[in-house]
Amino acid sequence: MQDFVDDTAAMEAGSTLRTAPGMARTMPIEPDSCETMRDVRHGVDALDRELVRLLARRFAYMRAAARIKPDRSLVRDDIRKVAVIAAASAEADRLGAPVERIARLWENLVESSIAYEFEQFDDLR
Question: Is pTM, for the whole model, over 0.90?
């Protein structure tokens, strides 16, 4: 058996994940299968860790954009912003998630990303 696994399907199935040699950790169960608040909190905590990992990667792309863009005026792209929020909203709708709440979250995420990209742009020059 592998010592380290990054398997979303295993997490969704509620299987065991080896986080370090000899140390197994049970992955969260599906929300509809939760029976206790401990189950819910375990799932939320696991998802929060994954979300932070994904957000860190997203901000790394913002650093790359700041490095690549030749002019500060190119950091804010309102047409791209609208497209990104629309794509997130469409994906939320496809998944049956609350579209308006996702759109508001993405509005904040994109604005924070733009602010971060400005900071990175300025730091590089």
Answer: no
